[in-house]
UniProtKB/TrEMBL annotation:
Cited SUPFAM superfamilies: YbaK/ProRS associated domain
Domain YbaK/aminoacyl-tRNA synthetase-associated: 35-142
Organism: Vibrio nereis
Any GO MF annotation of the entry: aminoacyl-tRNA ligase activity
Entry keywords, A to Z: Aminoacyl-tRNA synthetase, Ligase
Name of one Pfam family that matches: tRNA_edit
Name of the protein in question: Prolyl-tRNA synthetase
Keyword Transmembrane helix: no
Amino acid sequence: MTISHRLDHYMNEHNIPFQIVHHSHSNSSLQSGVSAGVPLLNLAKGVVLEDHEGRHIMAVLPANNKISLSRLDDEFSASYHLVKERHIYQMFTDCDRGAVPPVGSPYHMATVCDEMLTHLDHVYLEAGDHETLIKLDQDAFLALINPIRILRFSSQIFH
């Protein structure tokens, strides 16, 4: 597998230009970034959240950051929690386990983006397997994730 079927279809349907970056097999987005020689700040990861009413949202943030659920709760007047891994596997059936693209639209969920990613010339993201990243320029990245809101909701884990 390279790019997930849904993601590939969505990018083609919306004419979103991208480049493929192959790397050695990895088990996490952080390993993917290191293997591909990509600065971790430029590597986006997605965290699937569920609110108090069962609605899902994809939170997209830099791979070396941690999410602030309280910030998102305040912004959206909600009470979010992480979706359990087994449910994520059911939502992203066209992806390898642990290689979920940080893109909500192809999977029928809204996306919120951390503003740190909007200041970069290029953003990389998991393509759906453990050996492929997608490289996007800023305009293509924002067109792909189609965020409902851009705000600061994460902080760096390490430097």
